[in-house]
Structure formats: C-alpha cells, structure tokens
Design brief:
By secondary structure, this protein is mainly α. The chain has seven helices and no strands. It starts with a helix and ends with a helix.
C-alpha cells in the first residue's frame, strides 16, 4: 500500500484529501507528511492537498445546498422560524466560521450548513480554501522542520 501511495503521490494525496473533506471520516495529513518525508515537493504537495480538500468541502456544500429542504424539514425537523433564526445567525457570524472548516469533526458539518443556509459560492470557496491552505502549510512546515 505504501508503495502504491508513493508511486501515485500527488493523485493519491488529492483523492485522500477530497475524501477527508466529505462526511467520510478520514484524515489526509499523514499522507502529506509521508510524501514530504519521501522528498516530494512542498510547493506542489500543499496546493494539491488544499485543492483536493476544498473540492471535498464543495461536494459537502452541494449536498447541503441541494438537499437542504429535505434535510431541514424532513430529517432535522427544523421549523420555518427556527430556520430563519439560523440563517440570520449564520449570515451574521457563521460564514466566518468556515475558516475553521479544516477542523476534525467540526469542519464537515460547517460545510454542510454553509450549503443548507445558501452561503454564497465564492465566499464559501474563499473562506474554506484559506482555512485549509493555512492548515496544510502549517503541517508541511512542522514536518519539514522535524526532518532537518
């Protein structure tokens, strides 16, 4: 398995990063670290992981966006008044919380709520990408500092 991951380094990192940012409980930082330790270019590793993770977040956002009425009314049973209150709160504070979409456990639901509450596509993408890029950059710096 390790050989396969190293042979398919960047595509494997993209795929794992994508899956890790959906509702599938995976992590991608370990593969980023393995690739860096094995001499892969950090200038490529960090953007590949960021783009993969952002694409996964966009898939989760799309599920929230297009599955929103079903999720809120049938599954979660949120009243119209409760939904209006949640939309107001998210409009006031929530979209900035998307900077924390990189966090384990919390990040995927934030992306789903961003879709359910119809956060603007470009705002969503910018905030999520910024948070995820900062996380992968920090992980890469820590790994490379430990390797030296």
């Amino acid at each position: 398995m390790e050989n396969w991951l190293l042979e398919n380094g960047y595509p494997a990192l993209f795929l794992l990063s994508f899956l890790a940012s959906t509702l599938v409980p995976l992590g991608s930082e370990w593969l980023l670290a393995v690739l860096l330790i094995n001499g892969f270019d950090p200038v490529l590793v960090v953007p590949v992981a960021t783009v993969g993770n952002t694409c996964g977040a966009l898939a989760t956002y799309a599920i929230g966006l297009w599955g929103g009425p079903f999720l809120t009314q049938r599954v979660l049973r949120i009243s119209p008044d409760g939904q209006r209150q949640a939309e107001h709160f998210f409009a006031r504070y929530g979209s900035w919380m998307l900077l924390f979409s990189w966090m384990p456990v919390l990040g995927d639901p934030l992306c789903l709520v961003g879709g359910v509450l119809h956060t603007g596509f470009w705002r969503f993408t910018l905030l999520v990408t910024a948070g995820k890029f900062a996380r992968y950059l920090l992980v890469a710096k820590l790994v490379l500092a430990g390797v030296k």
